[in-house]
Write a sequence for this structure.
């Protein structure tokens, strides 16, 4: 990212922050729309497993994991 030049970015902190925001947004649907909540919760969990398999921050894609 050219605008950051020499500024260090803590990618782990950014990743955890974004995951928490998303988790909170999904949880907010629980009382209002259970069907959407359950669908998004399952999708969120699936994506979190995929991200953990790739590493945090992601350093390998699905193609790399499957082929190695």
């Amino acid at each position: 990212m050219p605008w950051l030049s020499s500024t260090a970015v803590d990618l782990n902190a950014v990743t955890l922050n974004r995951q928490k925001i998303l988790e909170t947004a999904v949880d907010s649907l629980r009382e209002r729309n259970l069907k959407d909540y359950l669908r998004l919760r399952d999708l969120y969990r699936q994506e979190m497993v995929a991200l953990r398999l790739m590493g945090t921050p992601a350093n390998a894609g699905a193609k790399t994991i499957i082929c190695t």
